[in-house]
Amino acid sequence: MARRLKNKSLYCNGLAGVLLMAICVSPGVAAQFPDVIDQRSVLSTQASHATLLSIARAGERLVAVGERGVVVLSDDSGRTWRQVQVPVSSTLTAVQFVNSRQGWAVGHSGVILHSGDAGQSWTLQLDGRRAAQQELNDAQTAALEPNADEGAQRRLVAAQRLVTDGPDKPFLALSFSDTMHGLAVGAYGLVMRTEDGGMTWQSWMGRIPNIQGLHLYAVAQAGDRYYLAGEQGLLIRSLDGGKSFEKLDSPYEGTYFSLALDSDGAVLIGGLRGNVFRSRDQGNNFEAMNNPVPVSLGSAIRIGQQVLWVNQAGGVLRSTGDSSTLQPLATPAAPALTAVVDAPDGSLVGVGFAGTARLAISNVNATSSNPERAVAE
């Protein structure tokens, strides 16, 4: 894996720096640190000021996650926050709730956490050790099939390496369509699937056309359609509920960090240098969208009839189905934001390298062309 780590070193100094911290540490060095999978997160009165990477709504509650297993909750639209403890101290990279109570978070060391009470308590459903072993088991079975090809053998070798390396690979994104069905993706092509709410997880790495093991940064689904996006312009699609996947022709060779499906079903992808593309035919063809702020886009979220994008500088932009141009909604705050969500009171709440911030945007759905400054209230 040392060769791959060397090739990935450039990602340790940019948009994905925090997300990929685990990748930039060799297995030998990582082994010297306490096993964060087995250590509960540390409670701190300053948790809401920690580096936070993702935020989601659980009904009337906001849930944000970040470094060292920090999870903070707000019941007043982001004005005040309190920390809850989780069973790991791994950095958490993404969080999603499918209703007011059921949610999942993923992160470093291959961890997947579940909450059934709006983020108040969490259980560990999967970690990197079990994920690697699951992939090895599946790869061994596939290699013994009568029609096994060279690809099956390559998968087996890669799976054996996963087990040998230990739980040093992070999950970077997740997508649940309901309380039962979800997908988690991450570094080196990690893909895990559940159909029972996370009680069990299966490796889907053998289904994904990603021979190089490129990092997967984003995933989205709607019905039987799945879309995955990652480094070096990697775009993957399934139109049959995950039974088969195909690699799409990418309009861009750079890395994609964000992916969203708009209210009309169009596929939107964003990545390095502010490049944004849209497909109205399920990914067969893409058109470039105009982004007046050529800064890398780290996250995207659909809110009503629009998609909000957060760029590396902390700016927030909006795209709508009837426009081919992104509209700046908020100019950068200091420090940068990593994600935003619409709060129950209609405001926009962001998280980033200095924790949480209520943004000075009174109506997320406003259509004014005048950008507002994103500052903490």
TrEMBL record:
Residues 1-30 form the signal peptide. Gene3D superfamilies: YVTN repeat-like/Quinoprotein amine dehydrogenase. GO terms for biological process: photosynthesis. InterPro entries: PSII_CF48-like_dom, Sialidase_sf, WD40/YVTN_repeat-like_dom_sf. One of its GO terms (cellular component) is photosystem II. Residues 78-151, 170-289 form the Photosynthesis system II assembly factor Ycf48/Hcf136-like domain. The keyword Nucleotide-binding does not apply. It comes from the Bacteria. Pfam families: PSII_BNR (PF14870). Keywords: Photosynthesis, Photosystem II, Signal. This is Ycf48-like protein. It comes from Pseudomonas fluorescens.
